[in-house]
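Issue 218. Parser rejects a valid record. Input:
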Amino acid sequence: MPVAEFGAFVRNSGHLRKWLILGVIIGVIAGLGAVAFYLALKYTTDLLLGHLADYDPPTAMGDGGSAGSGGFTRPWAIPLVTTLGALLSAAIVARFAPEAQGHGTDDAIEAVHTDPRAIRSRVVLVKMVASALTIGSGGSGGREGPTAHISAGFGSLLTRWLNLSDEDGRVAVSLGIGSGIGAIFGAPLGGAVLAASIIYRRDFDYRALVPGFIASGTAYAVCGSILGFDPLFGSLVTDHVFDPLQIPWFLLIGIASAAIGYLYARVFYGTAALSSRIRFRGAAVLRPAVGGLLVGLLALAIPQILSSGYGWVQMAAAEDTLLSIPLWIVLVLPLAKIVATSLSIGTGGSGGIFGPGIVIGCFVGAAIWRLADLAGAPAVPAGPAVFIVVAMMACFGSVAHAPLAVMIMVAEMTASFSVLPGAMIAVGVAYLLISRTNVSIYRAQRADREAAAAERAGLRTHSDSCA
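Output the parser choked on:
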C-alpha cells in the first residue's frame, strides 16, 4: 500500500484503530532504536574507555552486573579519552545536525508544542552516534535522551509521511518520547505515563495515556526480546514494610532531593548559558572538548562521575559495597555528578540528563543513610536501598515536574514497589517545594494545556497577519 493511501487510511480510521496502528509502529521503532543505541554505546564504551584507557566502569545488574576495573591503570589516558570522545561527537553534530547537541528531550518537547513535523530525520542517526561517543568516552550523560530523541524523531517523520493533523502529530511525538525512555530503562508503565506528563509542568495530556500504553508496551516487548526483560538494577528492595517511624526520614529525603534537584537544573543551565557566550570560529566543537577534558581530570579524583554511572547505583544499594566507598566521595558525589553532567552536556555534548539525575538522587539517599547509620539514629533501615530508591524518585521526579511517571519508572527499574508508601511522601514534598519555583530540568515544558493552546493560537494569528 503506497504511503499516501496508508496515510489516508490511518487518518480516516476511528480512534481505536488509528492509535492501535500508530502506537504499534512507534513502539516497534522505539524498541529497535533503544536496542541500536544500547549496542552502539556498549561497543563505543568497550573501545574508548575499555581498550584505549584500560578502564571498565561497573555496570548495573541488567547490563551484566560487572564490578568493573576497580581503579585506573592508565590514569593519564582518562582525560585524553574523554576529550577525544567529546571532540569527535561535537564535530559530527556541528557538521551534520547542530540541533542534536545537548540532551535532546527539550527539542522533542518543543516539537510537540510548536511543530510536530519539525524534527529532521538525520537527527536520529547523528544523535545516536554523537551520544555514543560522548558517553562511551566517559562523558557524564544518560542513554534515555538519545533514545527519546530517536523515537520522537520517528513520530515526527510519521506525522510528515502520513500527513497527520497537528493534534495527532503532537501525540505521536509524545509517544515517541515516553516509549523510547520506557524501553531503554525497561519501564513500560512509567514510559506511558511519562508520555502524557513530560510536556507540561502542572498538567497531564490524557489523550496520550492510552495510546502510550500501546506504544510503550510494544517498545518494551521489542527491546526486551533482544536485550532481556530483567529490571535494570535487579530487585533492590523486596521485603520493605512501611514503618510510620520512618516518616521523618522520608520528609528529610524529600527536602534534600528538592534542594539538589533545584541545584542540578540551575547549574546545568547556568553552564549552558555561560558556554553559549563563548563564540568564535570552531567554538561549537571546542567547548564540548574542553568540557570533556575537565570531566576527565575530575574523574581522576572521583571516578564515579564517568559515563552513565548506573553501575555505581548498583554498588551503592548494597551495604557492604557502599561502605567500601570513602565517605567523602559519597557526600560529594551528588555535586560532582551535577558538575560533570553540566560540563559534558551543558557545553554542547550529546547525551541524556535523566540518567545522571537518577545517579544524583541515588547518592543523596546514600549520603543520608551513611550519616544516619554513623550517628546511630533511630528508625533507619538496615540497608541503604530504601533511602536510595526513594531519593532517586524524589530528586528527578520533582525537578522534571513528572513525579508520578518517575516514581513508577524507578520502581520498575529497581523492582521496588514496596517502597511506594514512603516514596509518595518524599516525592510529594520534593515536588511541592520545586513547584514553588520556576525551575525545571526540561525548559521546553509549558505550564499546562491552556497555556500551550493559547501560545499556538497566538502563533497562528501572527502567521496569518504576516501572510
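Fixed in the parser; the record now loads. The mean pLDDT is 92.
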